[in-house]
Amino acid sequence: MSYLSLNAVDALYSNKTVLKNICLGPLAQGHLHVLLGANAAGKSTLLKRIYGEIQGQGQIFWGQQLLSKIKRDDPLFPRYVPQDTHMASTMTVFEAILVPLKQSGRWQVSKVDIERIEHLLQRLSIEALASRKLQHLSGGQRQLVAIAQALICQPKILLLDEPTSALDLHHQFELLSLLKDIAREQDICILTILHDINLSLNFADTISVLHHGQIYASGLPKQVITRQMLADVYRVQAQIIQNPALPAVVVVEAAL
């Protein structure tokens, strides 16, 4: 089993240090890892830093390999799905999911590729959209197509920036349940940003919390989600309700 790990990682954004001495991991294959933090904590910057879109000091490893030494067309290189996917195209959904395969040099699409796309559309519950043009999709539908584009490449690392932000509650649960299943079935390390703490408690294998550009805590959900963390990071007084299945966070008061 391989894992994603960060060692003393920094990042600059607009000439400002956004991430400072980030040490994170190992984040194992086959697990859904959630990144939490208040607004402007540096969560999106961290995903972009892992992906190589933003440069900085420090080392990022996949197993024993430096990510900076892995070619972008290698399956070991991360796939990254930003929050805003910018899909204003006359291309159909099915055609859009073919694009990453063609970009990797597979100009001859096989029957197996077609079957994989059809299966992926079904799992994401968007098979009815296969012939619809991207420009006619809702924000949530575009997010699902972007996730399909990433998954069709069979990556080992998948980085998702708020994949549930444009989805209703039902589809949030459906997508996170699916991502957790896919992580295990395909042995993928999935690192996703979420804002909903209760969803994170429901689905995360591990949770890491960013605070002012540094890791505040990282570990198992019940270890990380504490009243002290919620007060320090989110400036709220909250109760953590314990029940036989899963704990739940109820905010009592927000600090002014």
UniProtKB/TrEMBL annotation:
<dbReference type="InterPro" id="IPR003593">
    <property type="entry name" value="AAA+_ATPase"/>
</dbReference>
<dbReference type="InterPro" id="IPR027417">
    <property type="entry name" value="P-loop_NTPase"/>
</dbReference>
<dbReference type="InterPro" id="IPR003439">
    <property type="entry name" value="ABC_transporter-like_ATP-bd"/>
</dbReference>
<dbReference type="GO" id="GO:0016887">
    <property type="term" value="F:ATP hydrolysis activity"/>
</dbReference>
<protein>
    <recommendedName>
        <fullName>ABC transporter domain-containing protein</fullName>
    </recommendedName>
</protein>
<dbReference type="GO" id="GO:0005524">
    <property type="term" value="F:ATP binding"/>
</dbReference>
<feature type="domain" description="ABC transporter">
    <location>
        <begin position="4"/>
        <end position="237"/>
    </location>
</feature>
<dbReference type="Pfam" id="PF00005">
    <property type="entry name" value="ABC_tran"/>
</dbReference>
<keyword id="KW-0547">Nucleotide-binding</keyword>
<keyword id="KW-0067">ATP-binding</keyword>
<dbReference type="InterPro" id="IPR017871">
    <property type="entry name" value="ABC_transporter-like_CS"/>
</dbReference>
